[in-house]
Amino acid sequence: MLTDVQLRRLMPREKPYKLSDTGGLFIFVQTGGSRLWRMKYRFGGKEKLLSFGAYPEVTLAAAREARDQARAEIRAGRDPSLTRRQRQAEAKRVDKQLRHVGEKWMTTKVVSLSDVNWAMIQSCSSVSMSPGCVP
Length: 135
Hints:
The chain is of the alpha+beta class. Helix content is about 45%, strand content about 20%.
């Protein structure tokens, strides 16, 4: 089982290497020094690989939690990588719908807003819909 101290001390080598944790979870250390969380599992008779992110952005505890969630999906008969792709596709669809609603709202408000407010709304909508952009 890996510890946080071991993870902090990992150094790159000439070739990429893996250090195993438990339940198929391992950290993949690349030659450039990046450390990536991955999980190897079998589903439908095929070996598959699931990525959880880079250490230290994804902590050891978070990687283990993600592994546990993936293992629960496997026990339930669902492929975690397929589930992840479906969630990402749904998020993109929702984002496109939100963007469409925002654009439609902007076209209806162009007549009633002052030039200053319109310019501010356009600049915010082109960057993102962040809270700092609300007029």
